[in-house]
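Q: I'm building a small set of examples for a reading group on sequence design. Run inverse folding on the following structure and report the sequence directly after it, with nothing in between.
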């Protein structure tokens, strides 16, 4: 190797410009936190197996094929021009771009001659789908390999050609009492190598011979699928309809759970019985009910709560969500779905024990789910507005873009179906809300549907058949009131509420009077209130409260003695355990709430009574779950690096290198935690003479570093000075200093340059 060429990865990194190092840190942010102390530390982090695997996973198939050429080179290094010559099927610009990407990520290093770090070689076990060399497999190949392969029978040849494809490892079939299998005959001929009791591997030399003029396999060109084209305005309109539908359905679901929470199973999740009940209440399928439960949970609107945390309830965030404008409500649902670590499509599937997985069960957690959603939708984000891809074509493109993650793409069709249901996607084309969600998060999603969703209305249209038609989404206050005085009969763009005897009685139980109901209907309806509705309210109000229930444990009284006799003789009220105490009074050993429930189910209209004889109103309680506490922030290793952070880290690396170069031969050393007189003497002299010092320092996390510091003051066990590494004033604890020495003027200038 010429003397001017770097001999190691660390030496090559020193030759890179600040911009190139910043690009490396931006491409592999996991190696930048905390900032490496110098180039040697950076090179060590670049060789960490987890970091290498993460970097390789992000490469497309063409780039990996270029890497295979370097890994399969007969010597440790290959000329850049030879890489393009080895892959004539790939366009030259694609090869150049692949080499640039690999060197930017330090998966290859070198300028004229490209080298692969050892850890990269270990991470790519079968480059180009070829096995290891015969010498590594400890197998002796035939002396005339082409002749030996050419003389094979078709069954043996078929086995070799299959192993010469993408994976050189195969399973060794069981032998019967007859002739040996083709694989065993190949083992005997020295054309296969046994790697364990059950598996064999094809030596690299045999694979290369079988591939002929394509030793690296067919060129891995980027697929060019047919583009789906739709009118962007039509896409946004359809997406807005889906968004309005899902917001309304989630609101109905949570309102239903507010009235009757779903029980928490011992194994987690919601029972099938509760899911069926919710499906009937919302007039949707059980699968849709499970999907809505998962969506509400992902958005933080549903969680476990109750006195013993054994029920699924709306969270406190639900109250805030209901008051938000429709675009913000949809954005909350969409953002929660995008970042959820759960896969709702697994609901109903069988687990390893053969048991069906329930909605909201812990078995639905898949930590790769957010990455799967983002990768699929980001691929569509590359297309212009109004254009997209069919699901099969998208999966094909994703397999090319991230071939090492191809085994994670099975949920992609379900993810696309969920995106369409929520309004992010329409026929394979991203909506404006979906684009905003991917580029700017929740705020961008709300902006994307702004003006597409209708404004909430504050009125209904009363009909002669005792229905109230809401011509759009209702404001929260009116929706709350209607949930008390009416029942939802059908939902959609216009929601239909029905006023019935039971709903009017429910309102009276909640403390409304007949006058209150008449005033409400007259105020909320833009059409005249039908006479039939007024009559219904008056008829139910006349019957309401004729029976009074109080707590003895408890009593039932009425001025109508005949009515009490009827109640006492009614078989439907037997479970209330009533007995006559006086001509106008019945008593029970059950609580007032239980007796009220039994009488109402039997068709009577009782009212609660206070000890003073006043009618008790029992407004419906609004149970709430506390909601999930925000978990710990995600690891900063995977968070993208901002340009400012990358530049600052590069400066620290350069300063650390300069500090190493300026390190004196015999610095004053001390044990961390023990301050020596020699250390204090050197620091005091540096302050007095204005001379920079070389410091060895251990930070609070235990990471050691070397740096050049211009001391300013020394007091109270702390050194104040200008840190050349970070280009800022810093405070150093003296007891953390491990070594110190004065820096000569010329060395200090080199360190600070």
């Amino acid at each position: 190797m010429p003397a001017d060429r770097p001999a190691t990865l660390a030496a090559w990194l020193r030759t890179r410009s600040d911009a190139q190092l910043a690009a490396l840190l931006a491409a592999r942010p996991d190696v930048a936190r905390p900032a490496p102390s110098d180039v040697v530390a950076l090179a060590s982090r670049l060789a960490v197996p987890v970091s290498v695997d993460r970097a390789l996973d992000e490469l497309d198939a063409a780039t990996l094929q270029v890497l295979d050429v370097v890994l399969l080179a007969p010597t440790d290094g290959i000329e850049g021009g030879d890489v393009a010559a080895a892959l004539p099927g790939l366009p030259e610009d694609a090869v150049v771009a692949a080499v640039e990407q690999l060197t930017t990520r330090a998966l290859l290093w070198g300028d004229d001659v490209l080298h692969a770090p050892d850890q990269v070689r270990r991470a790519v076990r079968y480059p180009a789908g070829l096995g290891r060399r015969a010498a590594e497999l400890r197998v002796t190949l035939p002396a005339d390999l082409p002749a030996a392969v050419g003389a094979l029978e078709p069954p043996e040849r078929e086995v070799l050609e299959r192993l010469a494809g993408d994976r050189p490892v195969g399973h060794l079939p069981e032998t019967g009492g007859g002739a040996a299998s083709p694989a065993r005959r190949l083992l005997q001929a020295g054309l296969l190598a046994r790697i364990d009791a059950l598996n064999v591997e094809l030596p690299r030399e045999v694979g290369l011979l079988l591939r002929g003029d394509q030793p690296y396999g067919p060129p891995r060109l980027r697929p060019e699928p047919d583009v789906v084209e739709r009118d962007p305005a039509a896409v946004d309109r359809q997406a807005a309809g889906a968004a309005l539908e899902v917001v309304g359905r989630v609101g109905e679901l949570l309102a239903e759970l507010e009235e009757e929470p779903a029980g928490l199973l011992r194994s987690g999740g919601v029972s099938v019985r509760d899911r069926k009940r919710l499906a009937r209440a919302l007039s949707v399928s059980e699968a849709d009910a499970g999907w809505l439960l998962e969506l509400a949970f992902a958005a933080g609107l549903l969680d476990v709560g109750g006195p013993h945390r054994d029920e699924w309830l709306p969270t406190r965030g639900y109250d805030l969500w209901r008051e938000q404008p429709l675009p913000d409500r949809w954005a909350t649902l969409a953002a929660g779905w995008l970042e959820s670590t759960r896969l709702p499509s697994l609901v109903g599937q069988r687990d390893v024990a053969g048991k069906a997985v329930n909605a909201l069960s812990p078995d639905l957690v898949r930590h790769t789910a957010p990455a799967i959603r983002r990768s699929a939708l980001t691929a569509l984000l590359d297309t212009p507005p109004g254009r997209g891809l069919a699901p099969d074509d998208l999966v094909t493109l994703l397999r090319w873009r991230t071939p090492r993650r191809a085994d994670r793409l099975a949920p992609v069709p379900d993810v696309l179906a969920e995106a369409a249901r929520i309004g992010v996607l329409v026929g394979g084309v991203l909506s404006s809300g979906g684009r905003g969600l991917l580029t700017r998060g929740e705020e961008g999603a709300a902006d994307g549907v702004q003006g597409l969703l209708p404004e909430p209305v504050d009125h209904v249209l009363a009909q002669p058949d005792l229905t109230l038609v809401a011509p759009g989404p209702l404001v929260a206050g009116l929706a709350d009131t209607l949930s008390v005085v009416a029942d939802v009969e059908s939902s959609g763009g216009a929601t239909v509420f029905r006023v019935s005897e039971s709903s009017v009685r429910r309102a009276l139980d909640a403390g409304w009077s007949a006058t209150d109901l008449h005033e409400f209907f007259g105020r909320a309806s833009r059409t005249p209130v039908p006479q039939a509705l007024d009559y219904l309210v008056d008829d139910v109000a006349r019957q309401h409260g004729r029976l009074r229930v109080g707590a003895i444990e408890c009593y039932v009284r009425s001025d109508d003695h005949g009515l009490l006799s009827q109640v006492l003789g009614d078989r439907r009220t037997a479970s209330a355990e009533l007995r006559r105490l006086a001509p106008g009074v019945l008593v029970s050993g059950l609580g007032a709430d239980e007796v009220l429930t039994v009488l109402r189910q039997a068709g009577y209209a009782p009212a609660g009574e206070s000890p003073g004889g006043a009618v008790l109103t029992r407004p419906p309680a609004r149970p709430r779950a506390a909601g999930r506490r925000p978990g710990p922030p995600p690891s900063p290793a995977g968070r993208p690096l901002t340009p400012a952070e990358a530049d600052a880290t590069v400066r620290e690396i350069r300063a650390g290198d300069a500090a190493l170069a300026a390190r004196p031969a015999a610095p004053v050393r001390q044990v961390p935690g023990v301050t020596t007189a020699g250390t204090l003497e050197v620091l005091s002299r540096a302050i007095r003479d204005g001379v920079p010092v070389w410091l060895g320092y251990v930070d609070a996390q235990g990471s050691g570093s070397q740096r050049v510091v211009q001391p300013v003051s020394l007091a109270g066990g702390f050194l104040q000075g200008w840190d050349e590494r970070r280009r800022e004033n810093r405070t150093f604890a003296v007891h953390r200093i491990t070594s110190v020495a004065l820096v000569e003027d010329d060395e200090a200038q080199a360190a600070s340059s």
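DSSP finds 31 helices and 28 strands in the chain.
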